[in-house]
Amino acid sequence: MAVQTRTIDHTDGGTGLEGYFAWDDVVFGARPGVLIVHAWAGRSPFEEEVARKLAALGYAALAMDVYGKGVLGGGPEENTKLMTPFLEDRPMLQNRLKTGLQVLRDQAETDAGKVAATGYCFGGLCVLDLARTGEDFQGAASFHGLFNKPGNTDGTAIKAKVLALHGWDDPMVPPADVVALAEELTAAGADWQIHGYGNTLHAFTHPEANAPDMGAMYQADADRRSWQAMENFLAEVLA
Questions:
Q1: Contact 30, 108 (CB under 8 A)
Q2: Is 163 helix (H, G, I), strand (E, B) or coil?
Q3: pLDDT per position as a tens digit, 115-138
Q4: Which of 66, 86, 92, 189 to pair with 37, CA 20 to 30 A apart?
C-alpha cells in the first residue's frame, strides 16, 4: 500500500475543527508524530501535502485546523481577519494548539511519547508559542514564522528543542527580532537553532508566493535547504 489519509473531527471551546491525518500503512505499529500548523489563510492543500510528505518519511502527520472546520481565507484581508483574534489572545491560541497536539497523540498510528510540531508563517509563530508554554514535546520547527513574544510565558522553561528557519530579508521579522528570539530561547533554557537564508523574503517555501512588494516570495534554494534542515531536525529529536 502507501500513504493513507483521513479527516478527524474534534472540538475546542465549542468550535468544530477538522484535522487532516496522514500515515504510511507500510509502517507497522505506532511511529513518531508531527503536527503541522497552517499559514494565515487556514488549513489548505499546501499543509495537506506537507502531511503526506512527512507520512512518506515514516511519520504520523496531522495538519491541524486552528480557525474552524471549513474556514479558509480568500485573500490578505480575509486572512488577516481570521488570524487577528488569535494574535490578540495568545492563551486562546495556545490552548487550541495543545488540543491539536493531543489529537495527534491520540491516534493509534502515533507514538504519543515522540511528537514534534512544524508550522508556516502564522503556523511558525504557533509552534514557537507551543514550545513557549513549556509543553512536553520533542521539537518545534518554524518556517518563516513571526517571532514576537506572547506576553504570558515569561519565566517558563522551554522543554522542546527549537529550529527556526528564517528568510533574512523578511520585512516582517527584522534582524533585531531574530536576536531577540535567540535571547528569549537562551533565557528559557532551550536547545535552539536559527537558520537564516540570505536574499530570502517571507513565505519562501510556498511556490505560489509572488508578492515581493509585500515582502513575500518563493525561493527554491531556501525551500529545499529548509526542508532538509527540518528532516535532519526531526530525525534527531524523534529518534
A1: yes
A2: strand
A3: 999 999 999 999 999 999 999 999
A4: 189
Q: Are 125 and 147 in contact (CB under 8 A)?
A: yes
Distance, CA of 30 to CA of 112 (rounded, Å): 8
pLDDT digits (tens, 9 = 90+) for 69-88: 999 999 999 999 999 999 99
Contacts 24+ apart (CB under 8 A), 65-69: 65/17, 65/18, 65/19, 65/20, 65/38, 65/100, 66/37, 66/38, 66/42, 66/93, 66/96, 66/97, 66/100, 66/122, 66/126, 67/42, 67/43, 68/15, 68/16, 68/17, 69/9, 69/16, 69/17, 69/18
Task: Give the residue from 160, 224, 230, 166 showing the smallest Cα distance to 194.
Answer: 166
d(CA 98, CA 193): 23
Give the containing element (helix H, strand E) for 137: none
* E strands, the chain, in order: 3-12, 15-24, 31-37, 60-63, 110-120, 139-143, 161-167, 192-197, 210-211, 216-217
Q: What is the pTM of this model?
A: 0.97
Contact 211, 217 (CB under 8 A): yes
Kindly report the CATH number that applies to the domain delimited by 3-237: 3.40.50.1820
Best CA proximity match to 126, nearest among 159, 155, 156, 162: 162
Pairwise CA distance, residues 231 & 84, whole Å: 31
d(CA 81, CA 67): 11
Q: What Rg, from alpha-carbon coordinates, does the chain have?
A: 16
Asked if residues 123 and 38 have their Cβ atoms less than 8 Å apart, the reply is yes
